[in-house]
Amino acid sequence: MGEVLPRRFYSILSRSMYLLIGYILALFYCLGLEAETKDFKRHPELSYTFFVLTLPLYFLVLFGCYTLVMIGYHMIILQDCKEAQDELLDEIKNARTFLTSKGMKF
Prior knowledge:
The chain is mainly alpha-helical.
């Protein structure tokens, strides 16, 4: 059939399913708690249910912000590889001399 999936995959999958079930239960609890109140019918955006419904969006925005900050941070502290740069420049010089010997002009 295929290779066996690692144990980490199953632990992440089970944790994700537990979080999803908890989120759905919290949503049902908030809906049951506030569904019949007049304030909920007039202003649903001020309720716990609205907050629970928009919670995944908040987490997605927070994850995007965290990702952008981490990418920017690692771009700032990026350490140069002097040896790799010298090696690349040497290969470029060798390629130019080889191509000029074959008749190519730069």
